[in-house]
Amino acid sequence: MHENTSAISREALLVEANKVIREHEDYMHGMLATDVEQKGNVLVFRGEFFMDDDGLPTRKTTAVFNMFKHLAHLFSEKYHLVD
Q: Which domain of life does this protein belong to (predicted)?
């Protein structure tokens, strides 16, 4: 299943992911990946989604969702989690 990817710990992957986030042109203050899990061959990143007081998405919510999607594409091709 993971023949073409390298093993990486959750902690090491989060360090790499947050470096990518901070250096990305769409970075907004507060964007941070706080968790990642393996769903088949896809790495799913999680963190604060910045909903408004009514629990509705904001402009920042969309930016964070797109960033986590970018991370999934970028890192799922390279890594798989080891636990």
A: Bacteria
Exposed e or buried b for every residue in 34-71, given b needs 16+ CB within 10 A?
eebebeeeebebebeebeeeeeeeeebeebbeebbebb
Mean pLDDT of 2-17: 94
Q: How is residue 36 annotated by DSSP?
A: E
Q: How many domains does the chain have?
A: 1
Q: What is the CATH number of the domain that holds 21?
A: 3.30.300.360
- Domain span holding position 63: 6-81
pLDDT of 71 over the 70 cut:
yes
